[in-house]
Write a structure and sequence with these properties.
The structure is a single chain. With 199 residues, the protein is α/β, with parallel strands linked by helices. A 7-stranded parallel beta sheet has the order 3-2-1-4-5-6-7, with helices on both faces. Helix 1 links the parallel strand 1 and strand 2. It is globular, with a radius of gyration of 16 Å. 43% of the residues are buried. Bound molecules: NADP nicotinamide-adenine-dinucleotide phosphate. NADP nicotinamide-adenine-dinucleotide phosphate binds next to helix 1 and helix 3. The site of NADP nicotinamide-adenine-dinucleotide phosphate has 33 residues, from helix 1 and helix 3.
């Protein structure tokens, strides 16, 4: 398969690459990294990315920003970071990409653990993650040409503990290899409309 991987250079992106690049051709995408440059926050750059890559068999996103901060200090603008970037960025990747994925292909997005196992200061992420779960459930029943769509919702990755660990005291980390395999299940398997939990 030819697979677009937005966020390939990140912690989750590398786990996905390690798993899928054994069997498939990966087109790595980032704002400042990868084979093709695109920004999830800018729909026209996503359209330019698809024009450049041509037809693909799967699209995977392992990118999306959210703001962390105490609920009592959250501003509307800070909530909108997650809603615009992590939620609408990944939704736009699907909306702009539907005609560029071959029949029976798939989209796989990334959410995260915080809408089921919250931490302090994580409300922005929890909100974005819940929205993405709703999106794939709703979208799956209307996808044309046998296209499938899922979202992978991992716990904190082992390789990310140093960066995010201060928010996650007491949480078990998830081996990166298991996270990679969840994406393989979505891309290479038959499931659709699912939140694939890895914890
Ligand atoms: N790491 C974890 O333990 C974990 C667990 C659960 C959920 N998550 C979620 O998974 C997502 C990825 O996390 P991560 O830790 O793997 O991130 P990361 O290590 O910071 O990597 C993010 C990757 O995405 C690219 N990227 C960032 N913003 C982008 C944009 N607007 N458009 C296109 N590419 C973009 C970056 O490359 P450029 O800088 O070149 O754009 C980079 O390759 C986040 O939404 C995070 O909340 C992470």
């Amino acid at each position: 398969m030819r697979i677009i991987l937005v966020g390939a250079d990140g912690d989750i992106g590398r786990a996905v690459c390690n798993e899928l690049s054994i069997r498939h051709q990966i087109i790595k995408v980032g704002r400042k990294s990868g084979d093709v440059r695109a920004d999830l926050a800018d729909r026209s750059s996503l359209e330019a990315m698809y024009a450049r890559t041509g037809k693909v068999d799967a699209v995977v996103s392992t990118a999306g920003a959210v703001h962390f901060g105490p609920l009592t200090e959250f501003t509307e603008e800070q909530f909108m970071i997650g809603l615009n970037n992590k939620v609408m960025g990944q939704i736009n990747l699907v909306l702009a990409g539907m005609n560029h994925v071959s029949d029976g292909g798939s989209f796989t997005l990334t959410s995260g653990v915080l809408d089921r196992d919250p931490v302090r200061e994580g409300t922005g992420a929890a909100t974005a993650n819940g929205a993405l779960g709703g999106f794939v459930v709703g979208a799956a029943i209307e996808m044309p040409r046998g296209l499938r769509i899922n979202v992978v919702s991992p716990g904190l990755l082992d390789v990310s503990r140093e960066r995010y660990g201060k928010y996650f005291h007491g949480h078990e980390t998830v081996p990166s290899e298991r996270v990679g395999r969840a994406f393989a299940k979505s891309v290479e398997g038959a499931v659709t409309g699912k939140v694939l939990i890895v914890e």
